Request: fold
Amino acid sequence: MAHNSPSQPCAFILFGATGDLARRKLLPALFRLFCENLQPEKFAVIGFALPDQKHPEYGDFVRAALTEFVPDKERLSCSLDDFIAATSFVPANFTDGEGYQRLKAEMDRVEKERETLGNRLYYMATPPSLVPDILNQLSAASLTTQSAVQTPWTRIIAEKPFGIDRDSARRLTDLFHKVVTEEQVFRIDHYLGKDAVQDVSILRFANSLFEPLWNRGYIEQVQITVAETLGVERRGGYFDAMGETRDMVQSHALQVLALVAMEPPNSFAAKAIREEKSKVLEAMRPLSSHYAVRGQYGPGKDPDGNPVPGYRGEQSVPHDSNTDTFMAARMEIESWRWAGVPFYIRAGKRLPRQVTEVNIQFKGAPLALFRGSTRRPEPNRLKLRIQPDAEISLVVELKRPGTLRDLVPVELDMYYQETFDAPLRDAYERLLVDALAGDAVLFMREDEIDAAWRVVDPLLAYWRSEPADFPNYAAGSWGPAAADELIARDGRSWFN
Reply:
C-alpha cells in the first residue's frame, strides 16, 4: 500500500480552501508531498471558497498557514514560492452558479498551462450541509467525468460525517451516484491513514504467531479506547449537532474494530479489504441502550491541573445541551470467529489522557501450576497504541529475579519512533497520496457506511427520546460511573 510519485497529472480542487481543515492539515500535507516529490510532476492546486479576511490574496493565506503549521526546518528546505506558484484561487460561495463557471475557466487555464490533462481530484473540506450544493453545482457546470481511472478522470474526496443517520447517508450516496460512480467517491477517515492502524492487519496476517489465536477460542475480550483531553475547542456548533457517538464511534472506532475483527482478505487490494471490513460491520448486533452509556463532561481540570468549563459552558454550545461527549458500549459480532467475545468501545472528550489504543486480552493460563505463587498470573494482552505515540506491546508473565513464585507482568514493547529510522507520515499525507494514485484501500465504501449506521442508529434514536441527566462526569476524569458499571457487569474493568 505504498506508492511512488503518481505518474498522472492532476488538478487538485479544494472546496473550503480558506477553512480550518485546509489551513491546519491539507495545505501542510500538500506542501510536504510537493517537497518529497510525491505529487505528480504536473500538478496544480485550485482553491474555491470565500476569501480569508486577514489574507485576501490566497498566496498570502497559504504562506501564513504553512508558516504556522510546518516547522521551519521543513519549510526552509523546500521552495515555498514554487509551491505557491502552483496554487490559484476562485473566490465564491458554494451555491454561486457563476462561481462554478469561473472555476471551469480556471481549470481550463490550468489544464493548458500545467498540462493536467483534465484529471481532477476534488476535496470537500466543507460542512456536510454544503456537500449537496457542491455536487449539484458541479453537475450543472459539467465539471465531472464518469471515470475514476481513465483520463480525463474525476475523483471526489468526501470528509466525514457521511450523513447524520442511515437514511441521510443513503440519500447522500444516491446524490453522489447521480454525479459520479461509487468508484470515484473516496470517503476519508483520517484514522485509516495512520501507520499504526494499518499495522493491525500486517501484524495479524504477516506473522503466523497471531492469526491461529485470533478467535473466540483464545481471546477473552477486546477493548478500544479513543480518549481526548481537549474539549470541543471552536467546534461547538458542529459538535453539538453530532455528539461523540456520531463523531468518533460510528466512524473511527468502528473502522478500527473492523480491521481487528475482519477475516483474512485474499489480497491487499481495495476491493478485498473493504469487502471483509463490511462483513464485520454487517455481522454486528445493533447497539442497545442496555449495553451502552452516554456522558457529558461538567467543569473540572485539564491534565495540567488548570480549571476548565463544562461542555455547556463551551463556545457555541447551548446551556441545556443533551449532546453526548462520552460513550461506552459492549458490542458483539455474530460470526463463527467472534461469537461470545465482547468488544468494548469507549470514546470521550476531556478525559485524563489523549490516547487511542486497542487492547486484545487472551484467555488466562490454567491455575494448577501457580497455586503457591504470590499472585494469579495475568492473562496475556496485546496492546496496539495508535496515538499519540505509536506502540505495539505484549504483556507476558515472568518471575521476579531471585525468586521462584513471585510473578510479575512484563511488557515487550516496540515503539515506532525508536524502531524505524523514519518519521511517521501524517495521516492526511498518506491518504492524499493514495487518492492521487487512485488507491481506495484506506477509504470507506458505501456498504461500510451503511452497515456502521445500522449499528448505531437504534441507540441514537433511543437517546433522542430519553432525556439525559447531564453533566455526569467531571472534566479530567475517565467518564461517568455508569461506564465502569457497564463493564463491571461482566466482571471486567477498563484498561486505563
